[in-house]
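[audit] Reproducing an earlier prediction to check determinism. Same input, same settings, fresh worker. If the tokens differ from the archived copy the diff job will pick it up downstream; this log only records the rerun itself.
[audit] input (113 residues):
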Amino acid sequence: MRLDGGRFDVLWGRDEMLLGALGMGAEGGVGLTYNVIAPLYVKQIEAFRRGDLQAVRDLQAQAIAFIDSLVATGNFFAALKGVMRAQGVPITPAVRLPLVHVDEKKMAWLSVP
């Protein structure tokens, strides 16, 4: 952020820690869950910019809970692909070895914030 007089906007790549990155001066984020819960992250950035830290904390907690639910399926990447498919993204459910497909029962209880 200090490089060349701060002329570069910095994006953060760790979804669970966006709040801390915003506090350090990042302009936004890029990450896997941004693909499926982008509106939540947009609200979080907007709340940060208007100084509503409680809202930012609450929104970050929602993002973390969603990430935790993806992890709890046993295969974060396959679960994320399943959520993307449920949202209408034309993506194959297949994952590369050694990853395995997530059981539909585990996918059924995932909820997008």
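[audit] rerun output stored. Observation attached for the diff report: The chain is about 50% helix and 5% strand.
[audit] end
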